[in-house]
Amino acid sequence: MPTRTRRQWKPDHRGNYVRQIGWKLSKNGKIVQHKFNLGQNRSEAERRESRLREFWDCVESASKEDRPLWSAELLAIAQQIAEGQHQIRINKQPNELLHHYSHRLKRLASEYPFLQFVADDRAAYEIGKSVLEDWEAVPSNPGLPLDSFSQPNIEQLSRWVSIQQQLDDSGFQLVPNALLSPSDVPSHAMNSKQSARGHAIEPLRRFESAVPNYVSKDAPPSGATLHQAFKSYQHYLEQEYHRVEEDQISAWGRTQVRQVTTLMQHHVNRLLVTLDGEAIDELFAYWRRRPSRLGTNNPMTAKSCSNYLGTLTRFLKWLHKSRDFDWRKSEDFGELDTRVKKLPSDDAKKSLRQVETFSLDELKLLMRYGQPMDRLFLLLGLNCGFGRAEIASLLVGEVHLFQAHSPSECEIIGCQTTDNDSFIKRIRRKSGVYGEHLLFPMTVRGIEWAIQKRKQFPDFGPEARLLLTEKGKPFDQPTKSGNTNQLIPNAFAKLIKRIEQDGNEIRNLSFGKLRKTASHLIKLHSDGETMGVFDCHGQPVQSDDLTDSYSNRLFGRVFEASRRVETYLAPVFSEAGQQPFERQPQAYTKRSTIDRIIELHQQGYPTGQIASGLQVSKATASRHIQRHNQLIREAAENG
Description:
It is built from 24 helices and nine strands. The chain is mostly helical.
């Protein structure tokens, strides 16, 4: 019987898309359609609906009833489809025999091949599957003499001993005579393998019913599961990356813990004893094939899959060395393929702009609308290629204002400097590579402003952080929950939002794109090797990994490129005005309106007429005019 469909599909009052698919028996005994909630994303809801209809069509065609109904088992599967699950988890029912559980999964996979079924209780599934496989391997001989079982068949018994050994190794406490033994074999005649199986399964039932909690709490390492090992590895990471000074795990350690959680979500649980070379290959192949993000139909990025492959590799190396688990990697472990699959969609967005960088007009807007700290972040990003971590960790002693290099240093870097030059000299924390950056004059002014602000807080000195929040806290101080501090990226996002709200066009790029913009400008005005030195890469010359072993880095070329970039960015600097590090007006009045007030004032219009024409209060227009005149006087006094 067809189910209800509609041409127009609108979400319900909660914003969810729903469909009535298939029939079921209600609590009062009536046959009704079942309503599925398919989520709030229209395209995703349509995809889930398509899978549900395919599933119901298969249920209808296989049923012998005039009006097929959802069974409890099939409805549970359909509900997972409606939730967007790509892997359908099948639970082990109470008191269900292990081999019955394994057989049920095999049957569902055969009846509905378009769905991917996985065992929720992987250990139970593996044991049941092993038992069934070993029993299938018992030799069959229809012509077997009637009294042949009075003398046990060696191959049959060896099979059962193998089963018992697997169970023992997995930490199961067997009851006496739980498995097939000579006393379990009936003395009467057997004329088929099926008859023998019927008698042999009974002891297996006695075993399974006698051990309902088949995974012992005191199971030896060989009975441990993959997810148990994952959780132990997470505990190891929490200890390994614990920062004593902050009494919490580092940001990188927390990232690795989250990645292991993702591994558990994507890989079903299984006994470690089944994690052989073939199983390891499949784990790696899963990530190389670019699986979909959970709850979506979109494949993961190649970068994400590469990261998870790295996490999986580190986990298996740890597992190999761990004394808590009896698992060892195979000899060919180092030969595993970790190349991530390339998809056609990877090249869809490729164009002349291979890397997202800010344009000159966008940089002018950022400078124009930025507050003093926003402008200093912008300058450090463009001048030094600093990202969030480099800015937050910059020390007072790493800034060298108006200090020339010594003659010997000039010989090393390949250029002459004077006391009019200022530099940041530091080791990049991420790569451990030393770098020097010639500062733009406006960057120098910003750092001088920052030093004066820093002196207002205690512990000022060479080892002190240069930039602090308004409350005197480091910009990289983790949150209370231990997450990475996002103050700098968030401030940059708010800046872009202010620009957009004032009617300007600017791409919503992240703060990290400033570093890429700086690298692009250095390369544009020099070459790739100079850009590598500027970025403090571990290997600036990609074709020669021994460059740093036989020569010094020529920072002089970086300085020359920086001077050319400074000239290129002159229009950006001019947007900051005469006093770039004076606090800018709050965003109550749009910046475009403020600029128009000043423009009309310079043209000689009276304040009242300006306010009326721009639809602002006379007090607002007067305040901005007075502030503009004050900045002009201060600039003239400073000469």
